[in-house]
Amino acid sequence: MISKDDITKRFISYVTVDTESDPESDTTPSTLKQWDLANILVAELKLIGMSDVSIDDNAYIMATLPSNVNHKVPTIGFVSHFDTTPDFTGANVNPQVIENYDGKDIVLNAAENIILSPDYFEDLLLYKGQTLITTDGTTLLGADDKAGITEIISAMEYLINHPEIKHGVIKVGFTPDEEIGRGAHKFDVKKFGADWAYTIDGSQIGELEYENFNAAGAKVVVKGKIVHPGYAKGKMVNSMYIATEFINSLPRMETPEHTEGYQGFFHLHNIEGKVEETVLHYIIRDHDMNHFKARKEVIQKLTNAINEQYEREVITIEIKDQYFNMKEKVVPVMHIVDIAEEAMKALDIEPLIKPIRGGTDGSQLSFMGLPCPNIFAGGHNFHGRYEYVPVESMIKATEVICKIAELTAKKAIE
Ligand SMILES: [Zn+2]
Which residues are responsible for catalysis (predicted)? Predict the structure, then answer.
């Protein structure tokens, strides 16, 4: 069906263009270099024969594959992001193609002794005998999410070249700046015009996700009083000790390193402290909306209790919601998950349906009116030098996209 060579070539042509995003920037896209790949993608979408190919002032790309049936079919969309994370460099990516992987250590970089080993990354053993694309150990790969882009474009090309596969209107959307949490911000859901969509931005083959965290950030500012330490008795208030009290009053086991599955947490990810002022940065996560609200209350009540104890406002807290669990927007249209599951089963892929311990563009899009579960793109070890993607998984993801299109058209008659 889809050739390994073609998909490998396409993927490599994308990952070798640096598209690192930048959280410090206020522009969209956050970095000018994202235009480099955006412009290539626009040209390629036109070249394969997509209609209404557009790119707006913020580098959001949209395109349409018209329906090839006469009956009415819901319009579906597929979405990926073309930026890569600022956590690790994406400049000068030099992909290594390892054919017929033997299940042993892969030397990414002999000079620096950087090894991708199944002793540490057991997932590798799932792909024995397959073709892996890895880094050279000095950069990330960018399978997150250029694998998704490769798969969507390859699927559209396949559908265009195989008109015997019947489908409704398909929309394609590529966004900048997902990795800095802004991929969906300027996504024009109305212009996109799909009834529902899928982000192709998951990891291992089979992943299908429609639940993610509810998320908030909390900034806790603790005020102390600085006095010369030699004359401080009864006068100095050391904000760092009060901050420690605050930290120790939250449940120690409800932290990322002690939780999994549906367990939520408080995560202290940054402290800046001096006697006069200490600032704590927390993120709060929970899949369950009631638990999520309760967590925000816990942290607020703790603030109040410490302020009462000191008989003044030693702590101020600012809690900001970041994103919400898409589940509540997807469950009422659960057939969109069922179709993806059915597509995978039809292709002998075992669906791995599990809650995301994070967020996706799809969660924001779901709350903007475009229900949007997430499907595997095939890569592993995102955001670092050990990132890799099996070519066979990319082909499977491409097939899943085609199959979803086909099933959606079929079900519209039934
Ligand atoms: Zn991603």
Answer: 83, 178 (proton acceptor)
Cα distances (angstroms) measured from residue 334 to each of 196, 256, 326, 327:
11, 29, 12, 9
Architecture per CATH, domain 4-211+325-413, reads as 3-Layer(aba) Sandwich (3.40)
Prediction pTM value = 0.91
Q: How far apart are CA 343 and CA 332, in angstroms?
A: 20
Ligand 1 mean position, distance from CA 93 (Å): 17
Q: Which of 20, 157, 178, 207 is catalytic?
A: 178
- The rounded distance, in Å, linking the Cα atoms of 29 and 182 is 9
Each residue's pLDDT expressed in tens, for the chain with a length of 414 residues: 789 999 999 999 999 999 999 999 999 999 999 999 999 999 999 999 999 999 999 999 999 999 999 999 999 999 999 999 999 999 999 999 999 999 999 999 999 999 999 999 999 999 999 999 999 999 999 999 999 999 999 999 999 999 999 999 999 999 999 999 899 999 999 999 999 999 999 999 999 999 999 999 999 999 999 999 999 999 999 999 999 999 999 999 999 999 999 999 999 999 999 999 999 999 999 999 999 999 999 999 999 999 999 999 999 999 999 999 999 999 999 999 999 999 999 999 999 999 999 888 899 999 999 999 999 999 999 999 999 999 999 999 999 999 999 999 999 987
Choosing among 3.40.1360.10, 3.30.70.360, 3.30.420.10, 3.40.50.1820, the CATH entry for 214-323 is: 3.30.70.360
Q: Which long-range contacts (CB under 8 A, 24 or more apart) does 327-330 make?
A: 327/210, 327/211, 327/212, 327/287, 328/289, 329/366, 329/367, 329/371, 330/210, 330/366, 330/371, 330/372, 330/373
Ligand 1 centre to CA of 248 (Å) is 34
Instruction: For CATH 3.30.70.360, list the domain ranges present in the chain.
Output: 214-323
